[in-house]
Specification:
Length: 332
């Protein structure tokens, strides 16, 4: 079965290599013809996944119609703010028989929709799944053992995608909580920015442990209010992804937060990498969502104020620490 991977960033490239190594015919699509030609010639994604060879079995193209032609599975790995525009390129293409698998983590700013909702709205696929979890491309591409979860409202589709992706170094679990899995993958990026700010301020393990623990409580509160299951946030797409993103040197969101904590401006921190810092835009979306739902998310609120209202990070920490005293599991 032919697989099309849409998006030649680090994660899209990693998954294309992973699936090709399992023996599937894979086509990797990128939006810029010149860079696609560079990848075709060099077989090394120097911008987003340097040092990892793209096997000859991965076909590269900048023609999206060619990429998805006769594909049984379409893996969507584009940044959240490009999702709608890329999906609009599918209009008029025959993808009726394909399973769409989104691996992108974010919430669209204007509509406040999850990635699977955008795909459903624009493309109307009959079969759709979400794959998420603690999975840095830099490690997965080097076959360091990784575990993720795939969710679909259709149990059989989840099982099919699970079997397709699973390997000795890439273990895949399944569930049917699409809402919880997607929100887990998006919300943890906001908390990871806070973790990076803690690192930049020179705080220690006590601070980060507290932040992560209270962060998962916030993620769970909002996720459940939006229709997700509480138990999902104790799994790979919740606490698992949160741990990885908050502690890893590979984490763009943590690194971005660290620069803020050290005194960099938001613009300086964003311009320091060609990678997309999903948590920056997600913070804005999440702010609108928890205000509408009247859900308390004090860490996310302070991250928003630091990023969008120029609040000083140390003042944000002080305000968090001096909030009204509460019972530990209040509101969960």
């Amino acid at each position: 079965m032919k697989i099309a991977v849409i998006g030649d960033g680090g994660w899209g490239t990693t998954l294309a290599i992973h699936l090709a190594n399992k023996g599937s015919p894979v086509t990797l699509w990128g939006p810029f013809p010149d860079y696609v030609e560079f990848l075709r010639q060099k077989r090394d994604n120097k911008k987003f996944l340097p040092g990892i060879t793209i096997p000859k079995s991965v076909y590269l193209t900048a023609d999206i119609a060619e990429a998805v032609m006769d594909a049984g599975v379409i893996v969507v790995a584009v940044p959240s703010h490009f999702m709608r525009g890329v999906m609009e390129k599918f209009m008029g293409l025959d993808t009726a028989g394909a399973i769409f698998v989104t691996v992108s983590k974010g919430i669209e700013n204007d509509s406040l929709k999850r990635m699977s909702q955008i795909i459903s709205e624009v493309v109307h696929p009959k079969r759709l799944a979400v794959l998420s979890g603690p999975s840095h491309a830099e490690e997965t591409a080097r076959r360091i053992p990784t575990s993720v979860v795939v969710a679909s409202k259709d149990h059989d589709d989840a099982k099919q995608v699970q079997k397709l992706f699973n390997s000795p170094t890439f273990r895949v679990y399944s569930n049917t909580d699409v809402v919880g899995v997607e929100f887990g993958g998006a919300l943890k990026n906001v908390i990871a920015i806070a973790a990076g700010i803690c690192d930049g301020l020179g705080f220690g393990d006590n601070s980060k442990a507290a932040l992560m623990t209270r962060g998962i409580a916030e993620m769970m509160r909002l996720g459940v209010a939006l229709g997700g299951k509480a138990q999902t946030f104790s799994g790979l797409s919740g606490v698992g992804d949160l741990i990885t993103t908050c502690i890893s040197r590979h984490s763009r969101n943590r690194n971005f937060g660290e620069m803020i904590g050290k005194g960099a401006s938001v613009d300086e921190a964003l311009q320091s990498t060609e990678m997309v810092v999903e948590g920056y835009r997600t913070t804005k979306s999440v702010h609108q969502i928890y205000k509408k739902k009247n859900v308390q998310m004090p860490i996310a609120e302070e991250v928003y104020k630091v990023l969008y209202e120029s609040k000083k990070p140390l003042k944000a920490v002080e305000d968090l620490m001096m909030r009204d005293l509460k019972a530990e599991h209040e509101g969960i």
